[in-house]
Write a structure and sequence with these properties.
Blueprint: E1 6-10, H1 12-21, E2 29-32, H2 49-58, H3 63-71, H4 75-78, E3 84-90, H5 93-108, E4 115-120, E5 126-132, H6 137-146, H7 157-168, H8 175-182, H9 188-198, H10 206-219
Parallel strand pairs: 1-2, 1-3, 3-4
Antiparallel strand pairs: 4-5
Helix pairs in contact: 2-3, 5-6, 5-7, 9-10
């Protein structure tokens, strides 16, 4: 009989540090996923060399730096030695697209066991729980992140909402882009702080907002 071994994949370094500090999931193996898959180009073969090169350019780092910062922590996942996977992520768009990317890789890797998905609140407290299988998510990943199309069916609901936001947030008529355009005279730093407060449902960070603001302002010069 194979002993059940659980790998907990967390939404980034902040959650990882919090769980470590508070002894949450004590004795369990936890790894952070430090990506921002909702921003920039990606590649259909997840975590491959081509994927790494493309994502490194998005983050303005070398492929080696990308591997060190993001892929190194996922080595336990890549080892496929865990019978049970648990995902701990926020409900915002940023996290949901990261979830989709991980589920797509697990689908590609033919992970057949049930996966626990925990949606957490602002203080990292569990708010809701879903049990799912990594089946069909690779096709959804390609449809959403490569082809930019909305699939007919997505489970669970937080993921569906995250995908809807993702496919719209950089469109010129999105609430985010309209707000940035309407505040074109506000200094970048001030506007970035306002966006962090006003658009929490996107979950984007200062780096992404600065790039979006710069890109939009350059287009309208």
């Amino acid at each position: 009989m194979i002993r059940k071994r659980t790998l907990h994949i967390l939404n980034g370094q902040a959650m990882y540090n919090f769980f470590k500090r508070t002894n949450f999931l004590e004795q369990e193996l936890m790894v952070p996923f430090n990506e921002a898959m909702c921003y920039g180009k990606t590649y259909n073969d997840l975590f491959s060399n081509e994927f790494t090169e493309i994502r490194a350019k998005v983050h303005h780092v070398t492929p080696m730096q990308y591997s060190e910062t993001i892929l190194k922590s996922l080595v336990p996942l890549f080892s496929k030695k865990f019978t049970h996977i648990a995902l701990w992520f926020d409900a915002d768009m940023f996290c949901q697209i990261n979830i989709l990317s991980l589920l797509a890789w697990l689908d590609q890797a033919e992970h057949t066991d049930a996966i626990d998905l925990y949606i957490v609140g602002d203080q990292f407290e569990p708010m809701s729980h879903f049990s799912l299988k990594a089946k069909g998510y690779y096709a959804i990943y390609k449809q959403v992140l490569i082809d930019k199309e909305m699939p007919e069916n997505i489970y669970p609901d937080p993921l569906k909402k995250g995908v809807e936001l993702y496919l719209n947030y950089l469109n010129k008529d999105s609430d985010l882009m309209i707000y940035i355009h309407e505040h074109k005279d506000v200094p970048e730093e001030e506007l970035m702080l306002a966006l962090l407060k006003k658009f929490k449902h996107y979950g984007l960070g200062d780096t992404q907002y600065f790039e979006i603001i710069k890109s939009l302002r350059q287009k309208h010069q």
